[in-house]
Design a protein that fits this description.
The chain has about 325 residues and is of the alpha/beta class. It contains ten helices and 14 strands. Helix 3 packs across helix 4.
Length: about 325
Amino acid sequence: MSNFAVLSTGRKMPLIGLGTWKSEPGQVKQAVIWALKNGYRHIDCASSYGNEVEIGDALQEMLGPGKSLRREDVFITSKLWNNRHHPDDVEPSLLKTLKDLKLEYLDLYLIHWPYAFQRGDVEFPKKEDGMLLYDDTDYKETWAAMEKLVEKGLVHSIGLSNFNSRQIDDVLSFASIKPTVLQVEGHPYLAQVELLAHCRERGLVMTAYSPLGSADRSWKDPEEPVLLQEPVIAAIAEKYKKSVAQIILRWQTQRGVVTIPKSVTESRIQENIQIFDLKLEADEMERIMALNRGWRYIVPMIEVNGKHVPRAAGHQFYPFNDPY
């Protein structure tokens, strides 16, 4: 049973990776070491997570000559943040990430969001009322700068994160180096059926973030559905003597979706990769798929004049106004 996806470049991308969003410095180094010791060969990072230096410490400890793993054994992703979309900022941002991660190249570099913030060193530049300061850099200009990173051998593949189907096609319409991956939120309540089909038709692999519902994020709604308490999945988990999380991760990987559960707990890190010893039956896959309700947990919010509003909803490149 395959435990990797094959990118359009021919390179293999492990279907389970360790997510590192919200993994605190002081915890993330040990989480990465545990993951690599427990068979993970894929680590998902981003400059905006604020923990790449510590992840780099873990990679330095585990990868390289005389260490337990070779660099080429592990697939490492990072992402370009929104204040770095200007073409002149793309390579310096990657070089900073490589320095922090203590690497010579990335396997995959993604544009984190399609919209740009104001250029500069402030990750979330804001007006006094709390409204974000945007920039009108077109992601097509950013993409052209991303392509140069591949040409220089600094990254093996480039891709997109949080882009909708129309924006993907926009990039494909002019790209000389095609995106290999689209990373988006994905789980049984947001199955991304149409977007997954759209990606497949165009040769992109989909990666699902927040695959277990991201219950630890700061703007959680107390009324939201709790994915890990879903009775349909719990019944399937009981049959296979697995956890609900393991069934969700198997459902995703079985349909070829790369999945990046985050944890800093060794037992959960182990559990999340112990899913390739079972195969869900077709009717079980369908029962999980039927839970899809278009529920998006990850709509980043900001406070403007004392009110919580979706971040960047007014930007021309905001991705979530389209159906998919």
